[in-house]
Amino acid sequence: MLMAFALLDQIRSIFDGDPGVRKVADDPVLSAELLMLFRMILADGTVSESEMVAFRRICREAFGIPEASIDSVIEYLNEFGYETNGSQAIAQFRDLDVERRSLLARHMAEIAKADSQLAGTEMQLLRRTLDLLDISPADVVKAEE
């Protein structure tokens, strides 16, 4: 019986689209955040396994995206990303409260530090993002405590 429900869910997801992708596509702020996190992964010119592990964990734990959906979400972001630049993505956050803006910065910092090498380009992206979001590094550190 359980297998029948799993099969029905698979069939439904084929027709309805992946539930994780649908969740991201229906939430412009979530799309923007994931896009910024993906840009942080690419900031130093290499995609490390540890950065991808951090990205997948953030997707699961912070946003409730099922592990089975993450590859499809990444595909969606690749397609969506061509139409959205960093400033447009950040604009989604400007009207949100400081806690939500700080969460984006913490997630970006987490990905930047995941490979144990903080590249200059990663620091530049993070600094620029903090400026655009109008949050101080102290807000990010304070929120981590």
List keywords for this structure.
Co-chaperone DjlA N-terminal domain-containing protein; TerB-like; DjlA_N; 145 residues; mainly alpha
List strands and helices in order, with pairings.
Layout: H1 2-16, H2 19-25, H3 28-42, H4 49-63, H5 70-81, H6 86-91, H7 98-114, H8 120-133, H9 137-144
Helix pairs in contact: 2-5, 3-4, 3-5, 3-7, 4-7, 7-8, 7-9
InterPro entries: DjlA_N, TerB-like
Protein name: Co-chaperone DjlA N-terminal domain-containing protein
Organism: Mesorhizobium prunaredense
Indicate the radius of gyration in whole angstroms.
16 Å
Count the DSSP helices.
9
Provide the low-confidence segments as ranges. none
CATH class: Mainly Alpha
User: How would you classify the quaternary structure?
Assistant: single chain
Q: Using DSSP, what is the number of strands? A: 0
- CATH topology (level 3) name: TerB-like
CATH superfamily: TerB-like
**Mean pLDDT over the residues:** 83
Helix content: over 70%
Q: Structural class of the secondary structure composition?
A: mainly alpha
Distance between the termini: 46 Å
What number of structural domains do the residues give?
1
The CATH architecture classification is: Orthogonal Bundle
- What general form does the structure show? globular
% residues in beta strands: under 5%
